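We treat protein structure as text, and this decision shapes the records that our systems exchange. The tokens are whole numbers drawn from a learned vocabulary of local backbone shapes. One such record is reproduced below, unchanged from the form in which we store it:
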Amino acid sequence: MTVIDKKALIEKRVNEGLKGQWYPVCKSVEVKTSKPYGTKLLGQKLVLWRDGAGKIRCLEDFCPHRGAPLSYGEVHGGNVACRYHGVVVDGDGVVQQVPAMPECALEGRKALQSYTVQESNDAVFVYVPSADRPEPPELALPKELTSDEWTGFLCTSVWETNYRYALDNLADPMHGCYLHAESFTLAYGSKQDLMQLNKTEDGFRIERVSQTGENFDWTEFEIHDGSMFCFLDIPYPPAAGPGGVFRIIGFTTPVDETTCRVFFWRMRKVEDTARESWRFLYRAVLETNHWNVLEQDRVMLEGMPDDARRREMLYQHDLGVSRIRQILTRAAKAQVEAELKSEQMAAE
């Protein structure tokens, strides 16, 4: 294996998405006991459904008989049944029944890869194993999602762009005062500044030097074993109702090399009656404003060519963009090297 080949493998892994990670793939309400749900993660088609106990199961979306999508089928006795010929597969990927041919040799065989699933805060997370991390670590979540002091709403959207551009966008606070200049809360502050990047206990924080609390002025990324997310604060005027800062928690999921799905929890620290008042105000008034901001991001990123990185000319404001790319590349390098070592040992 040459150095050039290795570099190409690393770049391909970054572009496809890292393995050894927990990713949110859909909302909990999208996975039902009545029918399977199909999606895609890192280019792999997946099927999810709820078994008889309500537990979500996940397999590669492929019938072991002839390859038909299991997501086109139905939930049968807590398992998934293919629509094409009725083959029934359980949540571990074992063929349980071939209705058209009793006592078929396929029955009892483990034919499909299964994935570990965890539900949290209205989202379904799936773990993608890697050679260097085959078993799922504990799912690390932001403190706002594990505290009773915070309340919020999950919004999610599919963007027709590589996930790397969605991460770049989150690591770039300076775009807020330009792209979102006409929005409800992001029209304030200076359009000129410098950026500074500081290490934190679990990652890094990118922020404007001369301005805080006026706009989308900073983003903090946390990188854990098996997960990565970011959070940022949006200043809220009194008209936005009771509570503290408006915090956004962001996860970005690679669907394939040209598509990603973003998950944003809009959170506020507010209690008792004020909590219910804010939740009503958000649904009635504020949610539309926030979707408009997301749409501005989506349209801009989808308009960029897939290979924009090859021609871009970064400057000082892109410190956060550079750092997140370094983190992805280092992780991809470790995964590729572990896979090559495993392949070498298997060949000996």
